[in-house]
Design brief:
The chain is an alpha/beta fold and 429 residues long. The chain contains eleven helices and 18 strands. The strands form four sheets. Strands 1, 2, 3, 4, 5, 16, 17 and 18 form an eight-stranded mixed beta sheet that branches. A four-stranded parallel beta sheet has the order 6-7-8-9. Strands 10-13-14-15 form a four-stranded parallel beta sheet. The longest helix is centred in the middle third of the chain and has 16 residues. The chain is globular and about 65 Å long.
């Protein structure tokens, strides 16, 4: 397959390139990057004038639900949602049934990912850190690494035991694979459903105190100081105090990283007063001060990555009383729009900084090779229309589930296609 990508603005955080060029791709490999390449009729021409071309995006925190919860999402529908949202790779979390705590499950997820969506979206499993995600016994970490796992996590269930966490950090350091912690002190959060504070007091809904996140991050970073060869990553960080702990750990040279979700840099807990269960997620939406802390940490680099925590649930699961509804929202198809609207259009982040947090940095954290816009390198890229104004309509989502608090919101910036593994997808074509 020979493709001539014409007139797009290449924005590459790795090389620092930011200029309009044409790209010639032959059989999935970049043949040439030039201002005016000579091409013949054998090339398929794709006009990208006015659009931007960036390294293929990676969402390092996605719930594909398969195996076990295919009524919410499947690997196929999750990859279709990722492709529509501009992602060429996702890391899927292990809270499936069975959990990804065995190499056979990890291989199944990896292979199934290679079979769907023409292989445009690559699927990398995050393996359970402990058997059954119960926090009691280590998973077979070496075998899981051999099966393609790029991280260890009991996501949705924090690793509560300090001794178990110590061993997870020690063993993970042998493979150079990060430990991804869902940071909350579980004895403080049982039964909670929104941020503990003024809104929870007013609504009567049980709260999840922000200090629960800070306590777990503090404990883990103390362990990381004891085991400095390990890599520790805070999933969906949401509180100002936890962010400050990560900031200090980075300053001290520890291998600590963090991610933030679009909903945690966009929404406050005020929206939970509507009792709309699509505002229920874990960690919960926090205060305006916390949202501002997340935004400033994205700006100064304390938060390395933007990840969606894409968590599909069916309509009937969400259409119950707030306290009974499951945590989580879908996010793959709104991530670029929210990032461009909330961070780039406002001037908080430069475009290349935002792309680094959606592509370059997540790949570095999970140990995947950097994508390069260089002759002879695999063509792995996302096409974005930075000026597109569009209204979020959950009924148009490719995801099997539609649980989003952003329905009806007008956003600026949208993915219009991806190219990876020699296959191209252009939205609406």
């Amino acid at each position: 397959m020979k493709i001539h990508i014409k007139g797009g603005r290449i924005v590459d955080p790795v090389s620092g390139m930011d200029e309009e060029r044409d790209i010639l791709v032959v059989n999935g490999i970049i043949e040439r990057i030039s201002s005016r390449p000579s091409v013949d009729g054998s090339y398929q021409t794709v006009d990208m004038k006015g659009n931007i071309i960036v390294p293929g995006l990676l969402d390092m925190h996605v719930h594909l639900r398969e195996p076990g919860y295919e009524h919410k999402e499947t690997i196929e529908t999750g990859c279709e949602s990722a492709r529509e949202g501009g992602f060429t790779a996702v890391c899927c979390m292990p809270n499936t049934n069975p959990a990804i705590d065995d190499e056979s499950v990890a291989r199944y997820v990896r292979q199934k990912g290679q079979q769907v969506c023409d292989g445009i979206v690559e699927v990398y499993p995050i393996a359970a850190a402990t058997k059954g995600r119960l926090g009691e016994e280590l998973s077979p970490m070496a075998e899981l690494a051999g099966a393609g796992a790029v991280g260890y996590s009991d996501d949705g269930s924090p690793i509560a035991s300090a001794e178990i966490m110590r061993r997870v950090l020690e063993y993970s350091s042998m493979f150079g694979i990060p430990v991804i912690q869902h940071a909350e002190e579980p004895t403080m959060t049982m039964g909670g459903c929104i941020n503990e504070g003024f809104v929870s007091t007013k609504s009567g809904l049980p709260g999840i105190p922000p200090v629960a996140e800070e306590l777990m991050v503090a404990r883990d970073l103390i362990l990381l100081r004891y085991i400095p060869a390990a890599k520790y990553h805070v999933a969906h960080i949401s509180t100002a105090s936890a962010i400050e702990l990560v900031r200090r750990a980075k300053a001290d040279g520890l291998q600590a990283t963090a991610e933030a979700t679009p909903h945690h840099f966009t929404l406050t807990d005020d929206v939970t007063a509507s009792f709309d269960t699509n505002t229920k997620m874990n960690p919960p939406l926090r205060t305006a001060d916390d949202v501002e802390a997340v935004r400033q940490a994205l700006k100064d680099g304390t938060i390395d990555a933007i990840a969606t925590d894409h968590a599909p649930h069916t309509i009937d699961e969400k259409e119950v009383e707030y306290i009974e509804a499951p945590f989580g929202i879908v996010g793959l198809e709104t991530a670029i729009g929210l990032t461009m609207t909330e961070l780039v259009e406002t001037g908080l982040l430069a475009l290349d900084e935002a792309i680094a947090k959606l592509s370059t940095n997540p790949r570095r954290i999970v140990g995947l090779p950097a994508i390069k816009f260089t002759q002879g390198e695999p063509a792995n890229m996302t096409f974005i229309d930075p000026r597109a104004k569009w209204t979020v309509d959950v009924q148009r989502f490719k995801s099997k589930s539609k649980n989003s608090p952003f329905h009806g919101r007008v956003l600026t910036g949208k993915a219009i296609g991806v190219l990876n593994n020699g296959k191209m997808y252009i939205a609406g074509v």
